[in-house]
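Table S5 (text form). Sequence records supplied for joint modeling of the two-component complex.
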Amino acid sequence: MSGVTRADALLEVARGIACRAGAGEQIEAYVAHSVDTEVKVFGGEVESLSVAEVDGVGVRVLVDGRQGYAWAGSLEPDVVADTLAEARDNAAFGAPDEWQALATPDDVAAVAAPDLDLFRDDLLTVPTDDKVTLTLELERATRAGDPRVRGVEAASYGDAAIETAVANSLGVEAVTRRTTSSCASVALAGDGAATQTGYGFSAGRTFADLDLEVAARDAVERAVRMLGATQPKSERLPVILDPLVTRSLLAILGSALSGESVLKGRSMFVDRAGEVVAAPGVTLVDDPTVADAFGASTHDSEGVPTRRTVLVDAGVLRGFLHNVYTGRRSGSGTTGSAVRGVKSTPGVGARALALTPGTRTPDEIVAGADRTLYVQSVSGLHSGTNPVSGDFSVGAEGLMVRGGALAEPVREVTIASTLPRMLQEVAEVGSDLTWLPGGAAGMTVVLGEMTLSGS
Amino acid sequence: MIEADVLERTLAAALRGGGDFAEVFAEDRRATTARLDDGRVEELVSGRERGAGIRVVRGETTGYAHTADLSERGLLAAADAAAAAARGGDGQTRVVALERRPTQPPHDVLVMPETVDKARKVEVLERADAAARSRSGSIRQVSAAYADSHRRILVANSDGVLAEDDQVRTRFMVQCVAAGDTGMQTGLEAPGRTIGFELFDDIDPESVAHTAADRALAMLQARPAPSGKLPVVLKRGAGGVLFHEACGHGLEADLVARDASVFRGRRGEQVASPLVTLVDDGTFAREWGAYAIDDEGAAARRNVLIENGVLTDYMWDLVRARKEGRASSGNGRRETYQHLPMVRMTNTYLLEGDEDPDDIIGRTAHGLYCVALGGGQVNTATGDFVFGVTEAYLIENGEITEPVRAAQLIGNGPEVLRRVDAVGSDFDTWAGTCGKDGQGVPVSSGQPTLRVAELTVGGTAQ
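The corresponding structure-token record, covering 917 residues in total, follows.
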């Protein structure tokens, strides 16, 4: 079946639900379909191979400002009918909220949807055998990458073709289509208590975008360079964040910059609009219209076109992300930032956050640094960062930078500060902007002193 | 959910092209969540998910396919896809005869969630909101959530197993934001049990709200947490996640087999302080990680993992157990029918000792007293783990004194297990969601008040 037929079929299902709205009732239907493949290999054998198609539908009903919602994992007509009935029943139990609303044709007309080609039909024709072969080769290349690699904890391949349709009873409708393909490997280096692990991956829109040599090389290098790591003494030090770490931190900042968090008083950025919240070198933008971003999308999940939103401009807090509800309540209007799965009502979130890159490469940054911790990876990011209080304390491992070069590896340390202080103390952003899966770009970032806790 | 003869034909089809083992896992789950935020009941959400996953194991390879179509046609199509994924090809025909296995529920569920008026699910939220806001003018925001889930599962496999289970879970969550001169702080309390609406016979919304509010208020007074190595006392119930991360994951047989655990090859060895006896117990009545059968049809069991400091056994799923010629320990779990099962914890807890908890604090000259923890994370291959502390106090001269701000604690599993130097006579548990390889499952962890002689505390105070 061609992809266009599928998306059209999804839109038909969504329209069929939305058009059932009675007097005084508004209905929005969100329908999703995905085709997934996952391959895991271990010890030169295929450990598991899964192939799956998943359908889902979510129905939102608004009556007098009250919202009800229901979802189901099937598009069978009787299931869809039950789901609509449940959503209607649930609407009676929500409290009335004057700002509650669906996207209107005016919301949609405010900006033109970007022209993006995010769906690669060729992914659907790649034989499963080729995906298996690549994964086996990734494991082999990781293992062969260095004599100190004693094994591969996991090597995997995954892809997905995801199509969604949204339609509401005010006449708004939109379809999104995208494909993703990725492979990842975890190398085990050293023996016994001296074991270290390293992660490498490659990701793109289709199978041909993948570079397994890069994934294997990164996994090997990141494991091997940690061999001999010890727990350092506690002290205060500047840190350099690896692009993967920056990506994860940006995603957390994105949640604090959601209009929902701010309106409900659950963000460290409450009442800070227009103020200096970061160093002058920090410009933070969410731009899902960039085709290279993994989170790129023509429309958000309420059917509103996406757009570029400047959140922090040269250190000054300029705005927040909004869906239709938070856009209305705040008076700012939607920024096309509704995000959701089938199982929930639309929330607010970033899809493609990035800092404006600086001028120096990561190598140049390291060459100019001394007595600094290069943070290769962090752990406990979700339990250790609080976007409300701003408290920040996470586990870290990485390498000391001494005299302009990466030196001894360190582990079993925490790095701590507060998110507002870290933003104020961004000393430099690297030139190495790389789009990564996970709603944000990665780039090397240099921060001022943080508290390193060790022995 | 599915007739036995349809299951038998589906299993036969799955093995038509060869294969050592085939399984049908069917699931029908209904869920309700209700959410209050910003003083308003925002929405009531109903969900329904139903489908089957079919797995075919052939040599080292598992093929998997799933479908939302539980008709015989849908199941046979998924069986063909799973068989193709497993690379079947030797053309044997196997006949499978299923025998229904009785299941022994760990406890009875008294009030099924679907029999409870939706209005009552909303009412507990409103009560919590009022209770939290009346606690103090410094409470600026309250969110509360109610969630129930009724999950019926069926497992049939080519060993002839046919077993079903009915799993009901209910959870209640309150989060508060308090604001003061020092900024904003949050407090969370989220009890959950494998029971129905009778959860509210055990807990009342007001006291959950008060706990969450008081936690946020206490943190308003908090000064920066210490940085460096300190003795750490974990209050009963608060610190089970330490063992979940420090050794629980490392005792999962799939990670051990991948050579990704520091506990590989150490059965029979002293791996922990003699004070440590650690149990994983899927039969722990009413606990958040309890069930009658796991998601591979094996009965839940109480498994002793570490006894008086000696590593006695790992946790097993069916595939790992078959390779070793032993029985599953009832730890094969999956998030939904769309996922392959793997080794997972259930309710993991440290048995109580005999010291008075107050004495443990009393004989700590300078340390950290942890009352509430957030989540954690472990690298099982290196043993390094972290967990977040969300409510903690300093211990000075044997007394609990000032609150300190949230911080991460970091340690190495085998080292920390050896450094447990006091175990109290009390006990409590904590409900959470454990994530592994992209799948989340409900688990609980438990422990008495205990002390770790030294852990690295990741605060900012010098």
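Note: Chain B touches chain A through 82 residues (CB under 8 Å).
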